[in-house]
Amino acid sequence: MAVAADIAARTVSLFAVVALLCLTLVSCNSEGDALYALRKSLSDPGNVLESWDPTLVNPCTWFHITCNQDNRVTRVDLGNSKLSGHLVPDIGHLEHLQYLELYKNNIQGTIPTEFGNLKSLISLDLYNNNISGVIPPALGKLKSLVFLRLNDNRLTGQIPRELVEISSLKVVDVSNNDLCGTIPTTGPFEHIPLNKFENNPRLEGPELQGLASYDTNC
Asked: Keywords in UniProt for this one (predicted)?
């Protein structure tokens, strides 16, 4: 009986070690899975994603990926990489991601609502692509966001008022899209230059508090 109890205890201990290892190795490679889902959604004529091997323990050795000391992904740097395709909601699982740099490609489709789960995000750079649809109101949950550059796409709809609650926001550029309504004038938007909103033919100009509805012309 004592031997059986000892074996059972050792088995439980082994499972605990395996579970801990699993958590340490990027949550059993869940971050790698999320990034590989992005790779599969993109056309990559320059083979910049060639090193993105899903069989590796974690994605920290992949080119264009930066991790912290705990092997959690903090940067994705794929700007100006001749990529096309679409974004995937799986990226929302990268809870330690601080920089998502996908500018100057030919990415199409919409910005997934799940990007609002990137609670550590500092910079979201999707400018100079072919992205359509609306700016997700869920981006208002990104309380660490400093840079939001979505210019030179095909975005439509209003500028979400949820964004005015991001006190850390310093740089916003949504110029050269097809946005409508009015420009927020409170919170961080109080200091954003008007040229960062230009060339949106249906955008009415700055919101007049209490006098104009922000969804005008939408």
From this structure: Leucine-rich repeat, Repeat, Signal
The residue type at 43: S
**If you ran DSSP here, which 8-state letter would residue 51 be given?**
T
pLDDT tens digits, residue range 66-84? 999 999 999 999 999 999 9
Q: CA–CA separation, 28 vs 33, rounded Å?
A: 9
Sequence-separated (6 or more) residues with CB below 8 Å from residue 177: 150, 151, 152, 153, 154, 155, 156, 199, 200
The pLDDT tens digits of the residues spanning 145-176 come to: 999 999 999 999 999 999 999 999 999 999 99
- The pTM score is 0.85
Burial class of residue 165 (count of CB atoms within 10 Å of its CB; 0-12, 13-18, 19+):
middle
